Amino acid sequence: MKGLLIINEYLNAKKYSEHTEWLMQAAQEAGICMDLMTNAECLVELGFHGEDRILNKQYDFVLFWDKDINLALHLEMCGLRVFNCAKAIANCDDKSKTHLILQHNGVRMPKTILAPMTYPNIGYTNDEFLTEIIETLHFPLVVKECFGSFGAQVYLAHEEEELKQILRTIGAKPMLFQEFIEYSAGKDVRLQVVGDEVVASMYRYSVNGDFRANISNGGHMRCYEPSEEEKALAISCCRLLELSFAGVDLLFGEDGEPIVCEVNSNAHFRNIYECTKVNTATKIIEFIIKTIS
Length: 293
What we know:
This protein has 9 helices and 13 strands. A 5-stranded antiparallel β-sheet has the order 11-10-9-12-13, sandwiched between helices. The longest helix has 16 residues, at 14-29. By secondary structure, it is of the alpha+beta class. Helix 1 (14-29) crosses helix 9, helix 2 runs antiparallel to helix 3 (86-93) and helix 3 (86-93) packs across helix 4 (95-103). It starts with a strand and ends with a helix. The chain has helices at residues 14-29, 69-77, 86-93, 95-103, 129-137, 160-170, 228-240, 270-276, 280-292, and strands at 2-7, 33-38, 61-64, 82-83, 112-114, 141-145, 154-157, 175-179, 187-194, 197-205, 220-223, 245-252, 258-264.
């Protein structure tokens, strides 16, 4: 069996490269010959005659550890089996699309309002729509850029001027507004899903007053045993978003019912390994082998 691992050419920090190493190692241990290419080494070539040069190497699958959605789609259209598929990555990369799909399938999530689209050369020439957002969601409320990772593009607004400043800071980039789940402030749960199984989970919590629980923002972690309801919810989200594997972040509702915060198609697994000693890379490779065998 031969596979291809696609990563991003321009993400070179250790937190990215070590995941590449783990995935390559897991493939090797499973007896898979897996090549490694960046998206810059695997250009989408259109309008040419003859077989795509990637197909000439006769890969059985592509493990797509990137968000270059058009490249993933191109490889699929060439007949390759891609994990995660292009549609699944797109469903998660844009948080507004994630919440649209979940909302229309009855999944519980924070009340969410999508910002009206504008254009980069225009921006928001008026912010009158914020009045409805404030009246509906109330302060404090969460503002998220639709494209972002590690909680870095997530903000908490406590009053109107602060909200307007956040809007000016984000500019014309797509964003959404959400109710603040106060009961879950500074704490959440990450469930790592592979196939139809929750393979690992951890409880994340902030000790520095940050409303976000992300480890990259200084949060702490400990092992967590999810309920059957939480497991079922995480697996259901992955099915709805057409994901083969993902990290599903859940908030705690005041009534104890889990609330979906985010779903990450290329969730980093170093922290959850350190917490649980479960190697997600191995689980992903095992899943791919089982799926295509």
